[in-house]
Amino acid sequence: MASSSTCVASSPASLKRRRDEDVVMLDTPTSSPLTDIEASQPSETPTTSQVPPAVMLVSLPGLLIHPPNHPLHAHSLCISLLAIRKCLQVPNLSPDVECRAWTSLAELGMAVVGSGLSNDDDHIWAKGIENEIEDATTKGLSIAQKHPTLRWYRSQLTFLAAQLATWQNNIKFAQTLLRRHLTTLGPSDPPAVVYTAHLKLISALATTTFHIPSPSTICPPSPTPPRPQDIRAALTAIQALQNLSTKNDHGQVTLLAQILRLRLLISSGQWEQVEEALIKVEKALSIDYSIERQPLQADSPRKGLRVADLNVAHLSSSPTKSSKPDGDSSPAVASQVAPPYKTFSDPFTTSMALHTLIIGVILYTHVGRAVDSTNRLSHLHALLDGGALKFSSSGDGPASGLVDVSFPGQNVPLQIQTTHPRVLYVLAYLVSAVAKKDPVGRKPKKKIFSMEGLVAWEKEVKKELMCKLPNWATVSDVDQVDLKLAKIKADLLCELIGVSIMRSDFDSADKTLALLIAHLRTHSLFDSFSARVTLHHAHLAHSRGDIPRALQCYKVAIHIAEQRVDDFVKLSASAGFVALRIGLFRQKAGDLEQDTKMLVDPPEDPEAIDPILEGKDDWEEIERMGMRVAETCKGMGGTMWSVGRIIEACLSDEILKAKQDLRTALNFTSSAGDNHLRALILALIASQFFHTSADDALNMLAMCENLAAGLGAVPGGKSGSKSPNGEKKSVDGIGNAPLRIWAGERSLELYRRSGNSRAAKKQEAANEALRKLTTVSSSTPLTS
């Protein structure tokens, strides 16, 4: 996005309230004190006209205010407040000038509060500004109620009063103010004002805490989750907005209401209703994926998110697409050229489409439908590559995410502040990394998107943000952009750590973990990510075979996640903990007596030995915990659903039930494109067929070993390339060594049992070569 050096903001009336939430944050129509006041003055010739002192004073803030990241921003706010206070001291003010001055004082006061200056000892002039805001809104409302021509100020002052109440964490009072104000609005009020009131109420119902910026940190306290009754009230308010816009035939507002509902359903975890809501929004946007499409090949204005060549994936068909008849694969259908992805011309629809596609990718990744997720991800990439982020309602200026909704016969548009384009751009990399689950191959897309996202993040944070925010922005808005970017980088680092652990690249995982912790400490985000960081340490220790540390980290991660109400991390840590306990119990009980050596050496530190490591774990307690975890996994998305079925299979005494659970999990992971989990399931299924169907077991072991080896494939060459002296050398890494060793030993046993001495000899040599490349410290016990 281009950047300019303009420093002058609009009038104080345009210093709007603190922006609300991520996807849609609302602003009321911008007023102009010069326009309103000059219209009431008698026309004079240019040579004799003289601006009254009150008009000049009330207009000064529009010329003085500097952008929030300008060095003189605080000074401009201070001088603007002095001008408005001086204006209010002028005797015999007309009602319109006085009401405008009180409104400006409240707006400037909220700008001071939103910038955190009222809590800063270095700005004594800002102390006690909250009382001035309350006094200004009260007196301004009193004047506006006495004069029908000043009716518009009632809405603006009510919004400011509600914003102050929210800042004071008096959210119930803010909700009451907005509900009461909605009842006073009628058909004669401008649609922008009416819809603004509805959106303000929706935001207040979904708000839990208000962030007070601090000079020392940009990290707000972790918000408490909204109560179920507040979620229901917010959904009811959204439905009221949608009904009103449908009645008035305002399609863009109807679309906005649908996307608000979609976002609220996801944020509140009501996944069972999300797909239906998503289908309605996509239908309203005319988005259709019934035919496989080719993305647009346009020049990317950013030269960064060129992703058309990254979307080819070998995935199973989505469950929703697998019901097509076989005739669909005929040459006539195969040769059919699908139209390109739908594009959008106006800024509002483009912004709504971007948010809808991101939500769609998240939904179908969560439920494990990789084909549906890939379709939407490719569409998202096509829009971004085509310059979709270069939208701005203010002409050719830099993109700020501010879009307008115009109404027929109305001069005042509804202004909506959407997610800042800088955030959306980097977020696209994170969404892509999350959607690409397959870590197998020489260039796994999860790793590519994670690394490229970090590169894009570094470039974006170095760019000037001064003129990429609306003129009414405050320091709080700048802090929120920085905070979101900091969280996105942390998430990208987490994705990179995850794929490094899955590919047994432990050195890279260690380094990235250190970078993640340093980043979280720098931005005061460690508390928010502490459970995930601990879980990464648990997975890393588990993969290395450091069982005492893995057990300890799993326990700590469960405890922290429980305190922070992070259900997904708690469940993931619990699943890892119970799977490790199952593996240790089976190993100690002698189920792996056929192995040539233990997969994990006994711990050398006597103090680290606990009943679990001594083999004295209670199997009944393991079963209770395992079944509890497996049951919880059913409502936590496709990946955790598959993990739950694996745990059930490991705990089941019935072979048929265990096979059914594993086959179901295998189908789900194939649909989700998760080859890492698929390799484990293939190994477990092979063990079920080990004594009953040698051919099936060998086939599954071969696929398992192939996937495990693919976790170590590296770009730049093939395994077995020749060195300068003519000897062959291995270019690829080992991959998942414990799984490969286990699969090789099982295959060797099957070959010997069937009398295939040639294959057995070849397999034995391969196993020996693999053991030479593997150390015991990189092993991990199986859960079978």
UniProtKB/TrEMBL annotation:
UniProt GO cellular component terms: nucleus
GO biological process: cell division; chromosome segregation; mitotic sister chromatid cohesion
Pfam families named in the record: Cohesin_load (PF10345)
Subcellular localization, as worded in the UniProt entry: Nucleus
Compositional bias segments (type: Polar residues): 28-51
Keyword terms of this UniProt record: Cell cycle, Cell division, Chromosome partition, Mitosis, Nucleus
Basic and acidic residues bias: start-end ranges: 761-771
UniProt entry tagged with the keyword Cell division: yes
Highest rank taxon of the organism: Eukaryota
Main location: nucleus
Biased composition (Low complexity): 1-14, 773-784
Region of interest: Disordered: 1-51, 316-335, 715-734, 754-784
PANTHER family assigned: MAU2 CHROMATID COHESION FACTOR HOMOLOG
Family (UniProt): Belongs to the SCC4/mau-2 family.
Name of the protein in its database record: Uncharacterized protein
